[in-house]
Write a structure and sequence with these properties.
The termini are far apart. The strands form 6 sheets. Strands 1, 2, 3, 4, 5, 6, 7, 10 and 11 form a 9-stranded mixed β-sheet that branches. This protein has a 6-stranded mixed β-sheet with strand order 12-17-16-15-13-14, sandwiched between helices. It has a 5-stranded mixed β-sheet with strand order 19-27-26-21-22. It is of the alpha/beta class and 714 residues long. Helix 7 packs parallel to helix 9. The structure holds beta-D-glucopyranose. Beta-D-glucopyranose binds next to loops.
């Protein structure tokens, strides 16, 4: 008999339920403690998994209790939210999505895994794969943005990066694809609210990134807190057993979200922990994170005959198999055994800097206000985010040392040693106090450039951080308007650096600034990365992975909308529009400027006709008529204008990048497998329909900027 089966045969019920339980550890002055539990439960084998603990010393201490002192010696599994770095932080995932670069997505995950594993961890609750089309929802910051195709590429890259080539290796983490499924579609963008979307939207938009994660071999999946059309995901038999395990073939571990099993009671689907535990177990949830429902509810459920021991064993089997796959039985101390070298850490920081610089999206650059001329003498660096190192980390700061990221002020000061850099915050991020504005204006005296750092606090996105308004919090607008007025008088350019975990609807700001950089939350190398862009060491290349609204009233807003029977017509009242706000976004998906000037021409497709098994090669020429080397991102969309159902106005099918020197031209090629043109027909069965499909290639999802050609599908 193999190890897992022989263990199951020897385990008591309490020991089995211990393997199905994950509890949080916290840190007290004297070291880690286990919240609501005790180290005794590790020793008596009734606690098998811990979260929120890191550091090899702490982890080894707990692991020794499990391995040396518990009856069966089953090693503990340690997990943490390593979302965008561990101690060294990369940009928030939405910022990383702006790179449109699968290799970079992979690499930051690989590096994060190495670092977290060296800290003793074996699991990360990442990647977050929820497609998010409503920026009011704060958790959009944790994922890849609005598009399912981007989501699938992101999923593959992240799962591959975290897990490495073999989970058994000491630098591999088990990835957890979360939050399955549709969490991004919470009603009105309010966190934890109900989700009620069509089966078609679920399958076309929200499921594909999870299917991709399963295809990439993800070790675990976390159901979302929310219900889907009345059925909480934690108890959703059809979505977990039916879809995830049955149709997608997922045989890994399903781990509940924090306290989610007990919350089935508040959802109104379970009367008590016994019923809650029964529902979750029946749906296929293996590990109960934090609710204690399995340990407290399942013994009773067994007595009542609501669940069978075989069902419990099935979950235990999956958990032990994961521990085995992670190599924990062979060497429970492999992760954390050898500290990383200083050189490895320095290299990782360098990577974090380069990824952060590439995540920055330049939204405006009038009259080449950026990069700053090397003649800059006095720079006024203003605003509440100018000297805010802790905010640069973003909402999942993991194990980063608080306050350790490089601020904009520090980054610019070190990049411009010849210049005098003066600073004033002016206002706080989110208070009503504008008394510091006058002092900030004084700082503009004698300056030749103003850098204004505005935006949200890191805690305004992420979990439990929905915002009904998408504007600048507090009195930042008053500061900005005062600075713009002063700058106009003095003929000074104002460069705005905007920090946020979502696109902020600030058309008035974009109008008045000479240049605007959307920096998201860039992570620990924030200030250096921003300085690299501002000084021109790096040309901006980030592209917004979300359609950027001009007003909160437009959301949800996304490029993959379907056509209307009454499409927008300014002259006709009875067409699809608002009376008070334009339909157009402030910036389309994919938008982002660089220091180059790119022109796309000569779209070619390898064939004008194609069958399902064919692959089309799509080429376009790109030239840089600007005066600096820069990188262009080219997007490939399709449009199926006539089909058995109304198809989206644009569907993303690819992207590619090209670096060009001034005056240089090159060709970008992308492949399109025609099987990717299948879609769910009238009855939600996948079909490949003959007929014309438009191939559209260009710099963003603005139809007017796309080159088009038609392919006839046969
Ligand atoms: C979040 C998850 C996270 C978990 C553990 C929950 O509140 O929804 O995304 O992985 O906590 O930290």
């Amino acid at each position: 008999m193999n190890r897992v089966e022989s263990l199951i045969g020897r385990m008591t019920l309490a020991e089995k339920l211990g393997q199905l339980t994950m509890t949080a550890a916290g840190f007290a002055v004297t070291g880690p403690f286990i919240a609501g539990d005790s180290t005794e439960s590790i020793k008596d084998g009734t606690l098998g998994n811990l979260l929120n603990i890191f550091g090899a010393d702490h982890i080894f201490k707990m692991q020794r209790l499990a391995v040396n002192e518990s009856r069966l010696g089953i090693p503990l599994l340690f997990g943490l939210d390593v979302l965008h770095g561990h101690r060294i932080l990369f940009p928030i995932p939405l910022g990383e999505a702006s790179l449109f670069d699968c290799e970079a997505w992979f690499e930051s995950a690989r590096e994060s895994a190495k670092e977290a594993a060296a800290d003793g961890l074996a699991m990360t609750f990442a990647p977050m794969l929820d497609v998010a089309r409503d920026p009011r929802w704060g958790r959009g910051a944790e994922g890849p943005g609005e598009d399912p195709w981007v989501g699938t590429r992101f999923a593959e890259a992240k799962v591959g990066g975290f897990q490495g080539t073999d989970l058994r290796q000491a630098d591999a983490l088990a990835a957890v694809a979360k939050h399955y499924c549709g969490y991004g579609a919470v009603t009105a963008g309010r966190d934890y609210a109900s989700v009620d979307i069509s089966e078609r939207t679920l399958r076309e938009v929200h499921l594909p990134p999870f299917a991709a994660a399963v295809g990439a071999g993800v070790a675990a999946v976390m159901p979302s807190f929310t219900d889907l059309a009345g059925i909480p995901m934690t108890a959703n038999n059809e979505m977990l057993r039916g879809w995830l395990r049955g149709r997608l073939g997922f045989d890994g571990v399903i781990i509940s979200d924090f306290n989610a099993i007990a919350e089935l009671i508040r959802h109104g689907c379970a009367a008590d922990l016994c019923e809650a535990a029964t529902l979750a177990l029946k749906a296929g949830v293996d590990i109960d994170m934090m609710s204690g429902a399995y340990r407290r509810g399942l013994p009773l459920a067994l007595d009542k005959g609501l669940v069978a021991m075989a069902e419990i064993d099935e979950c235990v089997r999956r958990v032990l198999t994961l521990k085995e796959r992670l190599g924990l039985f062979e060497d429970p101390f492999a992760r954390g055994a050898s500290p990383e070298s200083a050189a490895a850490l320095a290299q990782r920081r360098q990577l974090a800097r380069s990824i952060a610089a590439r995540s920055i999206v330049m939204l405006k650059n009038d009259a080449d206000a950026l990069p700053l001329a090397s003649s800059v003498r006095r720079l006024a660096v203003l605003g509440p985010l100018a000297d805010a190192p802790a905010e640069m980390a973003g909402p999942w700061a993991s194990a980063a040392v608080p306050g350790s990221p490089v601020s904009v002020l520090a980054g610019l000061s070190s990049a411009l040693p010849q210049a005098e850099v003066v600073h004033a915050g002016g206002v706080a991020i989110d208070t009503e106090d504008g008394t510091g504005i006058a002092a900030a204006l004084d700082r503009c005296d004698g300056a030749d450039h103003i850098i204004l750092c505005l935006g949200e606090a890191a805690a305004m996105s992420g979990e439990a951080a929905s915002r009904a308004r998408l504007d600048l919090p507090g009195v930042q607008r008053a500061l900005a308007e005062a600075v713009f007025a002063r700058a106009r008088q003095a003929h000074l350019p104002v460069i705005v650096i905007l920090f946020s975990g979502r696109p902020l609807a600030v058309p008035w700001l974009i109008e008045q600034a000479q240049a605007v950089l959307a920096a998201w939350f860039p992570g620990c190398e924030a200030g250096h990365a921003i300085a690299d862009i501002v000084t021109g060491t790096v040309s901006p290349s980030g592209r917004t992975p979300v359609t950027w609204p001009r007003d909160a009233g437009q959301v949800p807003i996304f490029f993959g909308d379907r056509p209307s029977g009454r499409p927008f017509d300014a002259r006709d009242r009875f067409t699809s529009k608002y009376l008070d706000v334009s339909n157009d976004p402030l910036f389309p998906f994919g938008f982002g400027l660089s220091y180059g000037r790119f022109v796309l021409s000569n779209l070619r497709i390898s064939s004008g006709t194609a069958a399902e098994h064919d692959t089309l090669e799509i080429c376009v020429d790109v030239s840089n008529s600007g005066s600096r080397e820069a990188q262009e991102t080219v997007f490939l969309f399709t449009r199926d204008a006539l089909a058995c159902i109304s198809r989206p106005l644009l569907e993303l099918k690819g992207f590619a990048k090209i670096n060009l020197s001034p005056g240089e031209s090159g060709t970008v090629s992308m492949s399109l497998k025609c099987s990717e043109l299948r879609f769910l027909g009238v009855d939600l069965v996948s079909v490949f329909e003959p007929g014309d499909v438009e191939i559209l290639v260009g710099p963003c999802a603005d139809r007017a900027q796309l080159l088009a050609a038609t392919v006839r599908l046969m």
